Amino acid sequence: MDLYILRHAIAGDSESFNGPDSERPLTKDGAKKMKHIAEELKKLKLRFDIILTSPFLRAKETAAIVAKEFHCENVLKFSSHLKVGGNPAALINEINTTYKKFDNIVLVGHEPYLSALISMLISGKKDLSITMKKGGICKLSTASLVYGRCATLEWLMAPAQVLKEN
Q1: DSSP letters of the chain?
Q2: DSSP class per residue in 13-57
Q3: What are the tens digits of pLDDT across the range 133-161?
Q4: From CA 4, how far away is CA 108, in angstroms rounded?
Q5: What CA–CA distance (Å, rounded) separates 10 from 8?
Q6: Cα distance from N-terminal residue to C-terminal residue, the chain
Q7: Residue 15: its pLDDT value, please?
Q8: Is the pLDDT reported for residue 165 higher than 80?
Q9: What does the radius of gyration of the chain's CA atoms come to, in whole angstroms?
Q10: If you average pLDDT over residues 102-126, what whole number do you get?
Q11: Which of 155, 104, 136 is nearest to 6 (CA)?
């Protein structure tokens, strides 16, 4: 199984946003940059069987941009386990029960949750120092997904690297 872990794109400032954090949207520039990132990722010939996203608006918008670029809007699903404060062990259980037939899964969410998840899957601990920039993506591969050391980090790219690659 290949897991692609994607941090949501640039969102509005949480300090100045007048509403619940879960409804904070991407900025216009954030959405535009994410579209360019998705276009460049498509050039890498990646294939996604399912896209699981946090139900928070900025993550949903990021996932929708990727789904549209890859023509896979029909495989976009929401997981409450990917939201801010979500349960990563429950997420792994959800993937292993509900989505076990899929080989290429995208997880769209937030920091510091995603870095801790990556750390857990590659080292068995949550405290590796990993930087996931907004719009950054990594690829993990695993033969058997468990909440613990089970995966290999294939690559990790900041948005600037994705945009320079092609």
Answers
A1: -EEEEEE---B--TTT--S-GGGPPBPHHHHHHHHHHHHHHHHTT---SEEEE-SSHHHHHHHHHHHHHTT-GGGEEE-GGGSTT--HHHHHHHHHHHSTT-SEEEEEE-TTHHHHHHHHHHHSSS-------TT-EEEEE-SS--SSS--EEEEEE-HHHHHHH-
A2: -TTT--S-GGGPPBPHHHHHHHHHHHHHHHHTT---SEEEE-SSH
A3: 999 999 999 999 999 999 999 999 999 99
A4: 8
A5: 7
A6: 25
A7: 82
A8: no
A9: 15
A10: 97
A11: 136
- Angstrom distance (rounded) from CA 60 to CA 146: 25
Q: Which two tokens stand for residue 152?
A: 């290999």
pLDDT by residue (tens digit) across 129-140? 999 999 999 999
- The yes-or-no verdict on residue 13 having pLDDT over 90 is no
The type of residue at 41 is L
Query: Which tokens in the block code for residue 19?
Result: 């509403």
CATH 3.40.50.1240 fits 2-165, yes or no: yes
Q: Which amino acid is at 48?
A: F
| Bridge partners, 137 (sequence order) | 6, 157
